[in-house]
Design goal:
The protein is of the alpha/beta class. The chain is 19% helix and 25% strand. The strands form two sheets. Strands 1, 2, 3, 4, 8, 9, 10 and 11 form an eight-stranded mixed sheet that branches. A three-stranded antiparallel sheet has the order 5-7-6. Strand 8 and strand 9 form a beta hairpin.
């Protein structure tokens, strides 16, 4: 099933309703997206990022965003594009070492950064999607991560209370979808995407292929369509952050 995709532009069309989740333009996919929102963006490094959706938000020029993602892309690509336009007010992330502009914005005070241990970040997102408001974890106790947070002892060990994370929009990437929004991810490109799909008020999935409802084997669906609001076919560069090859 072929679906066209265009960047936000002239004309206004409402997202499709009901069980049919497919939209044909990024304008439809991002309907209701505005400045000041909290946004989750899937991916690990540049693997499994929703490239077209990130570009579309960049083109929209919205700002003052709170962005939740494992990292901030690289200079000039992925979430690095949002940094160029100063679209992110607060970044909640686990790893930010691939982006020089990120460092500059953080050190200058232009952008707030909340660094979170990777496992804790994953669980905070999962908890948000599961309706769990907070949880205790031993990770970070006795460090700056625990400052200002409730701590308690369980069975002789100290734990830190971590609040769950939710978002106004979750922008995710999947390998294949059906028209009802059921998703399949491919290998390590799955990463944070399934958890973020469940934690967004509106979840938009950018995929490589859309098939008719009923064609996906139910045993292999990773994210049920109930968590997905809109699906769009994207075109992906699939850039590699650091390519290492053995001598010829």
């Amino acid at each position: 099933m072929a679906v066209s995709n265009t960047a936000p532009g002239s004309g206004q069309s409402a997202p499709k309703k009901g069980f049919h989740k497919v939209v044909s333009t990024y304008e439809e996919a991002l309907a209701g997206f505005s400045s000041g929102m909290t946004i989750m963006v899937g991916g690990f490094g540049l693997c499994g990022i929703p490239e077209g959706l990130i570009q579309a938000v960049y083109n929209m020029g919205v700002n003052n965003l709170t962005c939740i993602s494992n990292n901030a892309g690289v200079d000039g690509f992925g979430l690095g594009l949002w940094l160029e336009k100063r679209q992110i007010k607060t970044m909640i992330a686990s790893y930010v070492g691939e982006n020089a502009l990120f460092e500059e914005l953080f050190l200058s005070g232009e952008m707030e950064v909340i660094l979170t241990p990777q496992g804790t970040l994953a669980e905070k997102i999962r908890a948000g999607g599961a309706g769990i408001p907070a949880f205790y974890t031993p990770t970070g106790y006795g460090t700056v991560v625990a400052e200002g947070k409730d701590t308690r002892e369980f069975d002789g060990h100290m734990y830190v209370l971590e609040p769950a994370l939710k978002a106004d929009f979750s922008l995710i990437r999947a390998y294949k979808a059906d028209t009802m929004g059921n998703l399949i991810y491919r290998k390590t490109a799955m990463n944070f995407n399934p958890m973020m799909a469940a934690a967004g008020k509106i979840t938009v999935a950018e995929v490589e292929e859309i098939v008719p409802a009923g064609e996906l084997d139910p045993e292999f669906i990773h994210t049920p369509g109930i968590y997905v609001d809109r699906v769009i076919v994207g075109q992906f560069e699939k850039r590699v952050e650091q390519r290492t090859i053995s001598p010829g």
